[in-house]
Specification:
- Helices cover 20% and strands 24% of the residues.
- The protein has 6 helices and 15 strands.
- It has a 6-stranded antiparallel beta sheet with strand order 10-11-15-12-13-14. A 4-stranded antiparallel beta sheet has the order 3-4-6-5. Strands 7-9-8 form a 3-stranded antiparallel beta sheet, with no helix packed on it.
- The longest helix has 13 residues.
- 34% of the residues are buried.
């Protein structure tokens, strides 16, 4: 009888004037939450959220310190220009999940829909052969390329960066800047296989180069090794470089 009364007393603590007090499930720092408009979010510090381009709401990470809020990022990609791309947990992504573009822990990633394609520079400073080549490559790898770059401001011709300065080269970003990935290899090997219709001059990926005028067709691992450029980007581990004839 005493045990029953104790149980009833505990239950009464949760009921007052006929209303039940709902116990919220405790959240964890770097854990999941639901943000504005029911967007997938992560419980992190507000400064970490905003510095990574996110926005946050309050009262969605119960049981965490006051500065921990539910952070979401509704548009991601290198310039936020990939339609439908947003930050979510890798387990929730049915497309391609890219690292280094979202706030929070490593498994909160930029999810790019399967059919998403980045914008391609127009014909102008970027030559027609480069634009047409870029279109073919992007179509062949939907949802796999974050950004396409072409022209860099500089004298043409020159002996330093002639292909970009002359609008005759494109870069295909396959990760965040400076984030090493293996994702460029199938793209680079496809480019070699389709060198004719691309008017390929040469392709670089992962500190290796292939030139149709010098090299036999072979897997990327057997391409000629280039000098160390000193960084992930300079060694072409975050993008595939394509120069056109």
């Amino acid at each position: 009888m005493h045990r029953l009364l104790s149980t009833l007393s505990i239950l009464l603590l949760f009921f007052s004037n006929g209303n039940a007090s709902v116990l919220s499930e405790r959240a964890t720092v770097n854990g999941q939450c639901t943000g504005a408009n029911k967007a997938p979010g992560v419980c992190i510090a507000t400064n970490a959220c905003t510095s990574a381009g996110g926005t946050y709401i309050s009262n969605a990470c119960p049981g965490t310190p006051n500065d921990i809020k539910c952070c979401t990022k509704s548009a991601c990609g290198l310039n936020g220009n990939l339609k439908g791309a947003n930050c979510r947990w890798a387990s929730q992504c049915s497309g391609t999940a890219f690292s280094g573009l979202c706030p929070g822990p490593a498994n909160f990633k930029c999810c790019v829909p399967k059919g998403a394609t980045p914008s391609i520079p127009p014909i102008g400073t970027c030559r027609k052969v480069a634009v047409e080549g870029a279109k073919k490559i992007v179509v062949a790898f939907p949802g796999k390329i974050l950004e396409v770059g072409c022209y860099r401001d500089g004298p043409c011709p020159n002996d330093k960066d002639e292909d970009h300065w002359c609008g005759m080269a494109t870069d295909f970003m396959v990760s965040a800047y400076g984030v090493r990935t293996e994702a460029g290899r199938p793209i680079a090997e496809w480019i070699v296989a389709n060198r004719g219709k691309l008017n390929l001059k040469y392709v670089i990926w992962g500190q290796r180069i292939w030139n149709p005028s010098r090299d036999a067709v072979k897997p990327w691992a057997q391409w000629r090794v280039m000098d160390d450029g000193g960084s992930v980007t300079q060694n072409h581990w975050d993008h595939v470089h394509v120069s056109y004839s």
